[in-house]
Amino acid sequence: MMNSSILISRNLCVGYNDKAVMSDINFSLEAGKILAIVGPSGCGKSTLMRVLGGLDEPLSGECELLGIKVTEAQVRQREMTLRRSGFLFQGSALFSSLTLRENVEMPMREFLGVSNLQIRQLAEYKLALVGLAEAMDKLPSEVSGGMAKRAGIARAMALDPEIIFLDEPSAGLDPISSARLDELILKVRESFGTTIVLVSHEVPSILRTADFCVYLDSDTGTMGAYAPPKDFLQPGSHPKASAFFSQIKIS
Amino acid sequence: MSHDPNSRSSALAEILSDGTTRVTISGNWSIESAVPNLIFKGDKVCLVPDNLGDFDSSLPAWLFQNFKNVRQIDISRLPPRLQSLYNLAEKSTIWESPTSPPGFIERFGVWGIESFSSWQRAMDHIGQTAVGLFRTLIGRGRVNWNDFALQLQTSGVDALPIVMLLGFLTGLIMAYVGLIQLRQVGATVYVANLVALAMTREMGALMTGIIACGRTSTSFASQLGSMNVSQESDALRALGISPVEYLAVPRILAVTLMVPLLSLFATFVGVFGGMIVACAGDLSIEQYLTQAIRAITFKSFLVGFIKSFAFAFIAAWAGCYRGYVAQRSALGVGNAATSAAVLGITLIVIADAIFAVIFNLYNF
Ligand SMILES: Nc1ncnc2c1ncn2[C@@H]1O[C@H](COP(=O)(O)OP(=O)(O)O)[C@@H](O)[C@H]1O
Ligand SMILES: [Mg+2]
Predict the structure, then answer these.
(1) Residue B94: pLDDT band with limits 50, 70, 90
(2) Do B329 and A141 touch (CB under 8 A)?
(3) How far apart are CA A56 and CA A58, in angstroms?
(4) Closest-approaching ligand to the CA atom of A91
(5) Whose CA is closest to atom 12 on ligand 1?
(6) Tens of pLDDT along B107-119?
(7) pTM exceeds 0.80 for this model
(8) What is the pLDDT of residues B124-172, one digit of tens each?
């Protein structure tokens, strides 16, 4: 790859049925960085994330993922790119009739030509990373929301993706689990060089993990700011974003 | 470090003089290619890299699997990146407090309790349905009347074509089979009695009941089952609304209202179907109709009506019950639909047998 930017958004406009939810989104993210997307509920974070991850088409503008313009790419190339990225959905989206382990094994079975034993070994390791070593054989309906979220993270990491999208990974986690998750995110980036894009509402966690932060402004329907999260702590630089940051910090 | 980018992953275990097992790891490790099988003994292990090339999560996963039960493991000579990947995996603890898996006796007990409690839940659901119906009849029920109207349409009116078709064919088949026998004794005129009586007393209600199981029970089970999955029934309960009363009662009411009507249609077209076969050669239309009308007494008509009423209730209840107890998964919803149809048809046939005995006893 010539460009070391792994995710580029140019004049991106996202929404549903030709109705824009967020527009004018411009940023580029280098490989191995952690990007947090923040903004009030319903401002379009999940919508933007789906477009960035190549799952939905943007209304206008273009998005480049892993060096490929996903929406313009051929079906095969697009699928290859999606396979090199992992996605955690806001609602976990685990396959309800498979156990947690089978959920993690599923993409491996589809795409890795290795033995069942090895797949099992990989799946158990990924589940151990998120602290689910002893809940592997439970069904999604038998675990808590936080555990389902973590199993979703393990599934997103199944194929050692180069970039992982996490939609509200810490929602539903207690503070201790949430801190462990931050640690895991940092370690995964450090050890695998994985790029991580996440939606989060927790300011301490964002400050601890993220290198950059996209603030979505729901009043204007545009990207309010793109900067390292520490910049938002100083009032004045990005008034709305820093207000958002400090408000959450108080509550 | 120089290494051959094409060398395969490999591992070698050897026991040193002090009893430590030294495991040498080398080559390139990828989740897309096979990893070595390692057989070793001993609970003191020292891991040593030798010409270790690229690796992804396959190597820490392999280490985790092979050495998680080793008492003492020395990973200090591994590259720092690999060390942290290995340490990241939590061996036994889950982040929440763990629960131990049940033992044999416990599992047997659980099975016993579950099979008992499934009876209990069925009884509980019947009870709740009865209470809900009663409350609704005295005007105090909290019922989703939109569902009621919708089900009048989808479980009633929309089923008319299939009910008429199957009723017609049933009458036709009975007349055909009956004629073959009656011709031998020269009593073909009684084919009208046969078809008319069988349709009113038995087949009209039974066919319609079975169609209701196939169409309506399965649909109810999957509707209510997926409401379990999305926690809609929990949301109702949280509002202090009984999901049985709110969801099952309107469905049961709509079906018990519509299915007896459908059954009337089935009976009518069945008699008509029989007429077509009978009048194709053996009887005149007038003969057939006179015989048929003479055969249908008010009593036999009432028998059919009572049956279809009961069958309708069974079909609707089976669907609502299986949906109510459905597991919270896509598979659970599918199972609910299947078992609703099976339960409905089984109960209908059993009920039919009981009716036969009772009506016979009282000479009805
Ligand atoms: N499938 C959809 N169809 C139409 N509008 C949608 C759909 N999903 C979400 N929206 C709308 O898009 C906006 C952004 O939603 P979302 O991206 O989920 O917000 P966030 O994740 O920031 O809370 C909301 O106003 C929501 O009503
Ligand atoms: Mg969202």
Answers:
(1) low
(2) yes
(3) 7
(4) 2
(5) A44
(6) 788 777 777 778 8
(7) no
(8) 899 999 999 999 999 888 888 989 999 999 999 999 999 999 999 999 9
Given a cut of 70, whether residue A249 has pLDDT beyond it is no
State the distance from the centre of ligand 1 to the C-alpha of B77, rounded, in angstroms.
50
pLDDT at B191: 92
Which protein residue's CA is at the shortest distance from atom 6 of ligand 1?
A16
Rounded-to-integer distance, Cα B35 and Cα A7, Å: 32
> Do B255 and B315 meet the contact criterion of CB atoms below 8 Å apart?
yes
- B98/A134 touch (CB, cutoff 8 Å), yes or no: yes
The CA distance from A171 to A156, in Å, is: 16
Is B91 in Cβ contact with A128 (below 8 Å)?
Answer: yes
| Residue of chain A minimizing CA distance to B36 | A118
pLDDT, mean of residues A178-204: 88
For residue range B310-363, list pLDDT tens digits in order. 999 999 999 999 999 998 888 899 999 999 999 999 999 999 999 999 998 987
pLDDT at residue A1, rounded to an integer? 43
B94 with A121: Cβ contact below 8 A: no
Given a cut of 50, whether residue A251 has pLDDT beyond it is: no
Distance CA B320, CA B129 (A): 10
pLDDT > 80? residue B97: no
| Average model confidence (pLDDT) across chain B | 89
Segment B67-85 mean pLDDT: 87
Residue nearest atom 2 of ligand 1, based on CA coordinates? A16
The interface predicted TM-score of the complex, written ipTM, equals 0.81
Q: Are B336 and B323 in contact (CB under 8 A)?
A: yes
Map out the domains of chain A with their CATH numbers: 1-84+172-251 (3.40.50.300), 94-160 (no CATH)
With a 6 A CB cut-off, is A214 part of the ligand 1 pocket?
no
Cβ-based contacts of B84 with chain A (< 8 Å): 187, 190-191
Distance CA B60, CA A199 (A): 28
Task: Say what the pLDDT of residue B105 is.
Answer: 80
Question: How many angstroms separate the alpha carbon of residue B251 from the centre of ligand 1?
Answer: 33
- Is any ligand 1 atom within 6 A of the Cβ of residue A200? no
Q: Give the residue on A whose Cα is nearest the Cα of B65.
A: A121
- For chain B, domain boundaries: 10-91, 119-361
Structure tokens at A59: 């209304």
Name the residue among A96, A125, A187 with its Cβ closest to that of B61. Answer: A125
**Chain A residues within 8 A of B34 when measuring between CB atoms:** 114-115, 118
Quote the pLDDT of residue B92.
56
Which ligand 1 atom is the nearest neighbour of the CA of A41? Answer: 23
Return the ligand 1 atom nearest residue A49 CA: 17
